[in-house]
Write a structure and sequence with these properties.
The chain is mainly alpha-helical and 70 residues long. The protein contains four helices and no strands.
Length: 70
Amino acid sequence: NEIKNAEKLVAELKAAGGAKSVPYEYCSAEKVLEGSKKEFTENDFKPAKELASRSTSAAQAGLAEIKKTK
C-alpha cells in the first residue's frame, strides 16, 4: 500500500512537470521509490515501507512547491 501510494504521488508529480519545476524533490521521490521496490522484492518489508514513506514525503513536498508557483 505504501509503495502504491508513493507511485501515485510520483506519477502526479511527473505529470505536473516536477522533473523541471522541482528536480530535487522529483529525483529524490523517484530514486527512493526505486529503492523501496528493490527492498520489497527482496522481502525486506520494513526498509521498503520506510523508503516508500520517504518517497511519498518527497513527492508531496514537490507537489506543494508546484502549487505555490501556480
